[in-house]
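Help!! Second protein's tokens look totally different from the first
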Amino acid sequence: MENTRQSLFRTIFGMMINPSGTLKNALLSTKWYYSAAISAIAFGLFFGQTGLDLYKTGQKGVGFVLLSGAAGLLYGLLVIPLLGVIIWSLLKLSHSKQDVTETIASFCLSYSGALVYGTLGIIFSLALGWKTAVVFGVTGVLWATGPMIVAVRELTGGKNAFSIPIATVVGVIVLVSWSWIGKV
């Protein structure tokens, strides 16, 4: 159990510092559901920060904070893997030999930085009363773009032509959907 925690901790921070090397090792040693848990918790914290920010400004109630956090958990658990499946389908057109679970795990692991930023954002929000969704939450999601580019490049065998456009489109989809959810 201790090795799993240490390995997961190393994977989370490794995806922020050295996504290429970490991704190769993580796909061999990390179960896909741990990767999905990373994105689920990251988005739960991110959406929860949004709810807290709206609560602090008097725009929403406590129920919205809890609902936002739950929506974020579901978003990270369902939408991010679904985006991974869609991208896997597109990558199959470029003759990628990766299986769908590796693609899902890669996309979910890309949000390791968002998990770290989300944790820090909740700490600063609760301890100091800051509004942190934009400063920490959006920064964490944007931080995921780099690891996602690396993940797509690895999944396509080094084809850069797909990496940047795919990561950019996924990042835009995530931020636009977050914005929409915050307005509901």
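Here's the second one for comparison:
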Amino acid sequence: MRRMINLWTVPVMFAVLLFGAAGCAGGKDSLAEEEKQAFADVRAEIQSVVADPERAAKAIALISDVEQSFFNVRRSMNARRERFRELNADYDAARADIQAELARILSDIKANQQVVTDVHRQLVDIMTAEEWAAVQKAESKALSAAIKSLQSI
């Protein structure tokens, strides 16, 4: 039961960060550095906890995939904001154009959630329960830092 709760933690946090992306604009650089450090801490924790080098390498690669997913989300959020500014500035923009853009955004959000869910599931499957328990705190810190960084956009 505990693994199932943990499995849904990432997608729920991901959804929260995508819908709550309006934050303060200050400190973006420090937040990005905090995010990078948090993901580096997760990698270091995996390296120290997982005894099998092959499983550790797979888990570290998956953490890198999650980090890349957050980078991609940040980039797509910026593009979405710019597209909405364009639509808002165009007084002749049709309602269908705006609805199509919203549909594309929802589709992107679902795709991002699926990627993070899949990576998270693979990560849980690679590690033993004891290893996962040891790494989970560092992973939560990394995800919190990533969410903070995205909310600053």
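Reply: Different proteins will give different token patterns, so don't panic. The chain has a mean pLDDT of 76.
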